Amino acid sequence: MRNLCYCVFARLPLYLSYTSIKRDNEYTISPKEIQEQKKSLGLIKPLSIEKYFCKPTEREWSAKQQAVQDQLELLDLLEPSNPMSNLEKIPYKFGYKFTDCDGIKHEYSISDWEIMQLYRKCRDKSNFTDLESREKDALEKVRQKLEDSFMYEKDLHFIIGNLKNHANSFMIIGLVYPPIVKYEQMSLFQI
């Protein structure tokens, strides 16, 4: 398994700082180019982000997903404190509608632990007592972060990836959101 992970990740350039990414235009490829290069991961900078979205999903795991969960419970026998044995199903799907550098529009869901944890944390810290109100409050706070903050106050990039069985379908598996750097024009005569 370690060799497989190395092969997949070895294709991504390693950047020591965000400034290095900005100097390297290689990251501005589109999902189509990633597909043509037969890569499964890529870092893209959307040309424009039209909309953040949140859609309700099933509240319970599907039978197939539950079967995987049941297998993970076997890990409890070996290590009772294993956090993988009780994964919570988040009943919402988050994502972005955007246009890539080729001018093609996309709608990708976000499959990123950090965003799911943001939702959980906001719901659990909500001052409301009933679940419906706490969820509504959490969804608004996630919207504020993903839309108000990330779309307008950050230089948002997407780490996108696909699965072997669905090589043509990408999803956002990570967000890179450094601050927007604004430069001031200096006068030629200012020393």
Describe this structure in words.
The termini are far apart. The protein has 6 helices and 6 strands; from the N terminus they run αααββαββααββ. The protein has a 3-stranded antiparallel beta sheet with strand order 1-5-6. A 3-stranded antiparallel beta sheet has the order 2-3-4, covered by helices on one side. The protein is of the alpha+beta class and 191 residues long. The protein has a domain at 19-60 and 91-176. It is globular, with a radius of gyration of 20 Å.
Produce a short descriptive summary.
It is built from six helices and six strands, in the order αααββαββααββ. It has a domain at 19-60 and 91-176. The strands form two sheets. Strands 1-5-6 form a three-stranded antiparallel sheet.
- Rg from alpha-carbon coordinates: 20 Å
**Helical content class:** 25-40%
Largest β-sheet summary: 3 strands, antiparallel
Which band does the percent of strand residues land in? 15-25%
